[in-house]
Amino acid sequence: MYIESISPEGIEKLEYASFPGKISVIDSVGAEFNRAILYLRSQKVIGFDTETRPCFGPNQPRYGVSLLQLSGPEKAFLFRVKNMGMHRRLCNLLSDKRIVKVGAAIHDDIRGLQKLKEFTPGNFVDLQKIVWEYGIRDKSVKKMTAIILGFRISKTQQLSNWEAETLSESQCKYAATDAWVCREMYLKLMKSEKNPLVEEEKL
């Protein structure tokens, strides 16, 4: 049984955690890209997220997707799709129905990637659309992580420049963690008993 909602004070009491594995930043198609695809294709479930350079004013241009994050249990890959584009093999991976891709609020992420190259998404799971089945009302990644996994994640890099020439260590950690926790939450939920919210509680 999970709690329905968690307060900011409740989150404050939890320990910080972040992706514990190896993080690789990939900005071109080559040997490292091939190894990444091979690893991700060997997984049954991968965590999914994207980052976009923030826009701070109405007159600023809207930026496209900068980064695509895909994570397994011990390796996470940050594809700098703004630089390298959406390679055919990356599109094929995201279309593959045999691999579950788990994220949160994935509709806009997928749409942003499709602007770079058209593909048909296959077997994506949006945590925001399934947590109510387990009695959880909160929808933000930070709150869902606290409720389901029992730790807190840092969001300080969320509005950083994802088109910077070099991504900082904290940016990489943040980006990998966001994809990884989605995978971990999904796997935990799949082992949990359902306890759906009633209709009026879902509002």
Alpha-carbon distance between the termini?
Answer: 20 Å
* Biggest sheet, spatial arrangement of strands: 1-4-3-2-5-6
Task: Flag low-confidence runs.
Answer: none
Alpha-carbon Rg, integer:
17 Å
Average predicted local confidence, pLDDT:
94
Count the beta strands. Answer: 6
The description of the largest β-sheet is:
6 strands, mixed
Give the overall shape, derived from the CA principal axes.
Answer: globular
Helix-residue proportion: 25-40%
Task: Tell me the β content.
Answer: 15-25%
Count of helical regions: 9
Secondary structure class reads: alpha/beta
- The ordered string of helix (H) and strand (E) elements is HEHEEEHHEHEHHHH
Summarize the structure.
This protein has 9 helices and 6 strands, in the order H-E-H-E-E-E-H-H-E-H-E-H-H-H-H.
Could you explain how this protein is built, in words?
With 203 residues, the chain is an alpha/beta fold. Helix content is 38%, strand content 16%. The protein is built from nine helices and six strands; from the N terminus they run H-E-H-E-E-E-H-H-E-H-E-H-H-H-H. It has helices at 8-12, 31-41, 81-84, 88-95, 106-116, 127-130, 141-149, 169-190, 199-202; strands spanning 22-26, 45-52, 65-71, 75-79, 100-103, 124-126. A six-stranded mixed sheet has the order 1-4-3-2-5-6. Helix 7 (141-149) packs across helix 8 (169-190). The radius of gyration is 17 Å and the shape is globular.
